[in-house]
Predict the structure.
Amino acid sequence: MFENSDLNLTMDKERKLIIAGNWKMNKTVAEALDLVNGIKRDLGNVKELDIVVCPPFTALGEVSKAILKSNIRLGAQNMSEHNFGAYTGEIAAGMLKEFSVRYVILGHSERRQYQKESDALVAKKALAAHGASLKPIVCVGETLGEREAGKTEKVLETQVRDSLAGLNKEQMGETIIAYEPVWAIGTGTTATAAQAQETHSFIHFLLGKIFDESVARRVRIQYGGSVKPSNARELMSLPDVDGALVGGASLEERSFADIVKNSI
Ligand code: PGA
């Protein structure tokens, strides 16, 4: 599908895998604690890859305490592009930092769809995240209609360029991209290994074009969309796939732990 992949990032796999659980609008504080304590028990000794949990805002405080001094890191699911002020209902990066949040998911397709978040807004949020030393996980991905119309490459190029606009090379190197084909999210349909590899390789290529090759070599690209224990091993072994953003299967201790273990 993609023509000019002259930037070959598939030679090595020097990037550490990062597997994040996106709990979306699920889990009370008590349920969140149950889950994260289970994850800690199961995965407390894993050093080979980065493990992140992204609970809803209301559980960040308690989950943060539960994973203190562990190998599990904390992420949020969204944040404001503003640092403070009259923005009712919004949460600023600095507020997330109070709970030792390290990562923040930005521009998830559900927010693009339901809250009409644009690439330009996502870019502002990514800059605000870096301003507070949070690592953004910027989500991109095409719809089924776009893929079938042969527009995947074009759609991704626009999303990658515009959602990361204004980041300098240093900031880009500390940014994570999540490639989540919209048709694979919560549907049980996963991209094939060939589709995932081809698309991730294209995104690494794009980063080389927009920033430079050394930046592209640093940026980790997670795959998201119906990742489960049975497909994690194959997906995570692909040269340009550097981790996973897991929705449904991250809500249960066993399946999340198995995804991580199968990825090592
Ligand atoms: P899913 O969700 O694993 O349930 O498909 C992934 C996501 O939305 O990040």
In short: The radius of gyration is 17 Å.
